[in-house]
Amino acid sequence: MTSADQTRADSSQETYVAEFIDGPLEGQFDSRALVRGKHAPRISMVAAVGGLESVFWYDEVDERDMNGQRRVRYAFDQGESDPIDTEVEPL
């Protein structure tokens, strides 16, 4: 194994890919750090909607390994997230 291969293997052990399966971030991916070798069962994301920053909460649905990379799918928790106002007027 080359040092580049080892570096990739080490970094795949320290991070995982979060997949957002619904809600305002549907279809997006985020690389996140593992904490003590574990992924977060609940995460928040900040995104701009209508020019305003909003906080969106997501809960783990499942986890899988894809080509040696940990991937975790998350579902939108609308009740705990900031409301999405689709009729916001631009400032």
Topology, please?
Layout: H1 3-14, E1 15-20, E2 29-33, E3 42-49, E4 52-66, E5 69-76
Parallel strand pairs: 1-5
Antiparallel strand pairs: 1-2, 3-4, 4-5
Index terms:
mainly beta, elongated, disordered N terminus, five-stranded mixed beta sheet, 5 strands, 91 residues, 46% strand
How would you explain this protein's 3D organization?
Mean pLDDT is 84; it is low at 1-12. The chain has one helix at 3-14, and strands spanning 15-20, 29-33, 42-49, 52-66, 69-76. 13% of the residues lie in helices and 46% in strands. Strands 2-1-5-4-3 form a five-stranded mixed sheet.
Mean pLDDT: 84
What does the overall shape look like? elongated
What is the string of helix and strand elements?
HEEEEE
Low-confidence stretches: 1-12
Q: Which structural class matches the secondary elements?
A: mainly beta
Give a short summary of the structure.
The protein is mainly β. The chain has one helix spanning 3-14, and strands spanning 15-20, 29-33, 42-49, 52-66, 69-76.
